[in-house]
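Please produce the structure of this protein holding pyridoxal-5'-phosphate.
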Amino acid sequence: MTLAQRTSLNSIPAYRQGATPGAAQKAFKLSSNENPYPPLDSVIAGLSSELGTINQYPNAAAPELVGALAARLGVEPETIALGAGSVEVAGQLIHATANPGDEVVFAWRSFEAYPILAHVAGATPVMVPLDADGAHDLAAMAEAINERTALVFICNPNNPTGTVVDAAAVDAFMAKVPAHVLVVIDEAYVHFNTARDSAIGLDFFRRYPNVAVLHTFSKAYGLAGLRIGYAVAPPAVAANLRKTAVPFGVTALAQRAAVLSLEHEDELQVRIDDLVTARESLLATLREAGVTVTESQANFIWLSTGDDTEAVDAGLRAAGIWARAFAGEGIRISIGSPEANAAIATAVISALQEAPAHV
Ligand SMILES: Cc1ncc(COP(=O)(O)O)c(C=O)c1O
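Below is the modeled complex.
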């Protein structure tokens, strides 16, 4: 007898993790936009003292972290909902808003988890192509909204292209969004965003009753391995996020590390500034060498390699750069250590020269 199974899962791909180089090769893993810096000493010390409590469940309400976040962000504690990484909260947001068959609109290409999460929640993903510059086409996204739309993701900066949406463009978009639709501004990379005109999620959350913001401790705070992220959402939505969360998904260790990170934001800011400087210098080096590369406001860069993608990616791998390639579209490379960034520049320039379309 065959086991019962949900047949719709047959058409859903599993989430693909960034590739990791084997131990034999001297290589840089730059495929998951991780923070190249080790955890702060203060975070490690704080976690060590917490280890003795792992025989107990965490406090699901996470009062210390929620209080610290509310104070830091200037929002009410009831608007904060935590999850095991912001990807879990993104899933909760769909579960909390979409009835079966309802639509979830987002730009494409964007964060790979969006279509998977929408399908798994029983919703229908509606993917609106990015414009020619790899940026959100907010006018087309507004047109894609209808009475079935439950939620819209705006990924700012966008993964994998690194582009941002202007505040004025998001205001114009919001004017066209019906009141029943929740607009989620996913700011996983917000700390690296130095664009002056960019939309800032919390500004929109404060000004519109149907906006939520997604933040993570994985990227700028370097806690990807502990899995902790959160939404700032209208109170009724945040309450439903708590209902859709996996009970005890956010560990006490993750909560503690997040609190400690907030207490040491000045130390983390030095690292963030270094990563932004490294990004700008890498972009400048590539441009000086004649490489066309998209402006990025995240901790990665994007090469629109189109049909050359596989060939260029193979060249990068041979040079020890393990990036994230999207066949036929382009390659995303995370900003890494100074050594990795120097290796990226050399590898990209030579891999592009050797790609079929360039010989
Ligand atoms: C745009 C975006 N949102 C959310 C996430 C999820 O991050 P995490 O679950 O580690 O918080 C990622 C991770 O790569 C991302 O790129």
